[in-house]
Amino acid sequence: MAGKLCVSITHARNDTDKATVGFVVANAAVASAQETLVFLSTEAVRLAVKGYADDIHEEGFAPLRDLLGNFVKGGGKIYVCSPCFKKRGLDEKALVDGATIVGGAKVVEFLASGAPCMSY
Predict the structure, then answer these.
(1) pLDDT tens across 70-118, in order?
(2) How many CB atoms lie within 10 A of CB 109?
(3) How far, in Å, CA of 73 to CA of 108, rounded?
(4) What is the distance between the alpha carbons of residues 57 and 43, in angstroms, rounded to a whole number?
(5) 57 Cβ neighbours under 8 A, 6+ residues apart
(6) pTM
(7) Domain ranges of the chain
(8) How many CB atoms lie within 10 A of CB 54?
(9) What dotted CATH number matches 4-119?
(10) Would you tell me the crossing angle of helices 16-31 and 64-73 to the nearest 10 degrees?
(11) What are the two backbone dihedrals, phi and then psi, of residue 102, each rounded to the nearest 5 degrees?
């Protein structure tokens, strides 16, 4: 049975290195058969909007749009903080594939089973 891992990302264009590395780790977890959740909050909720990550590419890493797509294709889940998303006036109809807008209770439910969480 696979374990669980949560990767919490709070950065987007304000720190593309942290946003990218968070998804690198999340992809490694999915590839290792872990049930993996990426939780996007504060500025990172912007990563859940189609097209936002298209031009983010940290040297030495795959482009962020590819990391996002590969994560979802690998079976990873993306939870997006509802209040953070609403605060920024973003469009719920423009979510990337695999992203779901949730309240904090959904993240707590995932973590309550003892899943570790890494933050970027």
Answers:
(1) 999 999 999 999 999 999 999 999 999 999 999 999 999 999 989 999 9
(2) 10
(3) 24
(4) 17
(5) 63, 64
(6) 0.95
(7) 4-119
(8) 11
(9) 3.40.1260.10
(10) 30
(11) -140, 160
